[in-house]
Design brief:
It is a single chain. The protein is α/β, with parallel strands linked by helices. Strands 1, 2, 3, 4 and 5 form a five-stranded mixed beta sheet that branches. It has a five-stranded mixed beta sheet with strand order 8-7-6-9-10, sandwiched between helices. It folds into four domains: about 100 residues, no CATH class; about 70 residues; about 90 residues, Nucleotidyltransferase, domain 5, CATH 3.30.420.10; about 130 residues. Helix 2 packs antiparallel against helix 18, helix 3 packs across helix 4 and helix 8 runs antiparallel to helix 14. The chain is built from 18 helices and twelve strands. InterPro entries: Transpos_ISL3, Transposase_DDE, Transposase_HTH. This is ISL3 family transposase.
Length: about 425
């Protein structure tokens, strides 16, 4: 072969020996300047029976898109695919090349580039622009990847974390991730009980029996479901959610008390503008150094501000103490103290009363939160990433697209290495 051909093949990184490059030119494609490489795909035997007793029967020309260094000048490889008729079996054959799939005019190299770009936080539109393709092509590559992932039902992680997030059409989707490796196990389009049960029932009981813990928030049916699906697992309520419920209950009580006072009064200001101090762990409050508090026209330490606020109502004070003590017991992993606190008979705010009742009903799961190290903290990162993916795309209309994209961005680096072999094999 000529050195000219070798040189082009080297620069385009094409190794197919049956492809021969003849020329280059600048031409027009849809009224835009484009770079054209002219090539012939040779065929010297019948693809049906392998006979070399053939008659050449012209060429089929196709313009194959190829990744360009400069996206403003799209690159095409104009391939003339050799067609032959076999003298033995009278069948037609056409040359095939590694460059591109049969009946397709987007080169495999471009598809690899798209897959690589899909693992980054870029919108499909910008990927299409960079690879000189259309958004539809990018979506098709994404869909194709989605179908190629096969799920096996003979393994589940030992530590599962359940949660939900808002996605396509403002709907809530169920998500399960591996509590230790933080890999996504499954995202379901809905959070309905029957869908979640149907999904996990596909795993045989022996596999489900191996699940040791399931962490979740206080969603009333996740708990029942987890016990049904994973008989050997400990259900753990997420510590963050427990603390969140306590904070919310205290805030409702604080606001009720605040509304009893006139706007602008010292009592009102104490409860309104220092809300952050009440939620801070008591031991972290500044107790020594006083600061001037312009809202109160006084110089006080943080501890004094909180004490002054709580003095306004015994109910508020009880609620505060309970919130602080339960949070502390959770941090210290003190299950006995936690049990006593939840059974407390102190007079507390209405919402705190309801929260305590909820805790009593789920006592075992709450105590597990103090007993085990597992929590849903691992989901925070995943949920943040999903939000970012949705924001970059200005939302997804297609659930499969969203999920495939999440999987792609999660696997990131691995895909980039595997994509090359994947598209050649496909
Ligand atoms: Zn033949």
């Amino acid at each position: 072969m000529s050195s000219y051909n070798d040189c082009i093949k080297f620069s385009l990184n094409i190794k197919d020996p049956l492809l021969e490059f003849l020329d280059i030119s600048i031409g027009k494609y849809r009224n835009r300047d484009a770079k054209f490489y002219h090539a012939v795909a040779h065929l010297d035997q019948c693809l049906n029976c392998g006979s070399t007793n053939i008659v050449h029967n012209g060429h089929l020309y196709s313009n194959v898109r190829y990744p360009a260094l400069d996206a403003s000048l799209p690159v095409f490889i104009r391939v003339a695919k050799q067609r032959v008729i076999c003298r033995d079996c009278h069948m037609n054959s056409m040359a095939e090349t590694e460059l591109v799939e049969k009946y397709c005019c987007i080169s495999n190299a471009t598809k690899r580039k798209i897959i690589g770009s899909l693992t980054e936080d870029w919108s499909m539109k910008s990927i299409a622009r960079q690879t000189s393709t259309s958004t539809n092509t990018v979506q098709r590559v994404l869909e194709r990847y989605g179908y190629s992932t096969v799920e096996d039902t003979d393994w589940l992680p030992e530590y599962l974390a359940f949660d939900e997030f808002r996605g396509v059409g403002r709907q809530l989707h169920f998500i399960a991730i591996d509590g230790h490796t933080h890999k996504i196990v499954k995202v379901l389009p809905t959070r309905l009980k029957k869908d979640i049960i149907n999904y996990f029932k596909r795993f045989p009981l022996t596999v489900r029996n191996k699940v040791k813990t399931v962490t979740m928030d206080l969603n009333y049916y996740y708990d029942i479901m987890a016990k049904e699906l994973f008989p050997n697992a400990q259900v753990i309520l997420d510590r963050f959610h427990i603390v969140q419920m306590l904070n919310r209950s205290f805030n409702s009580c604080r606001i009720q008390e605040m509304k009893k006072h006139k706007k602008g009064a010292k009592e009102y200001n104490l409860l309104k503008y220092y809300w952050k101090l009440y939620l801070k762990p008591f031991e972290d409050l500044e107790k020594v150094k006083p600061y001037h508090q312009p809202r109160l026209k006084d110089t006080l330490t943080q501890e004094q501000v909180v004490a002054d606020g709580l003095r306004l109502s015994p109910e508020l004070e009880n609620t505060y103490n309970l919130m602080q003590d339960i949070s502390k017991a959770l941090r210290d992993r003190d299950t006995d103290k936690l049990k006593d606190l939840i059974k407390s008979k102190d007079h507390v705010g209405n919402m705190m009363h309801t929260t305590l009742n909820t805790f009593k009903r789920n006592l075992h799961d709450i105590l597990n939160a103090a007993k085990f190290d597992e929590s849903n903290g691992c989901l925070e990162g995943t949920n943040r990433k999903i939000k970012q993916i949705e924001r970059t795309a200005y939302g997804y209309a297609n659930f499969t697209h969203l999920i495939t994209r999440i999987q792609l961005e999660e696997k990131g680096a691995i895909i980039k290495e595997k994509a090359s072999s994947w598209y050649i094999a496909a």
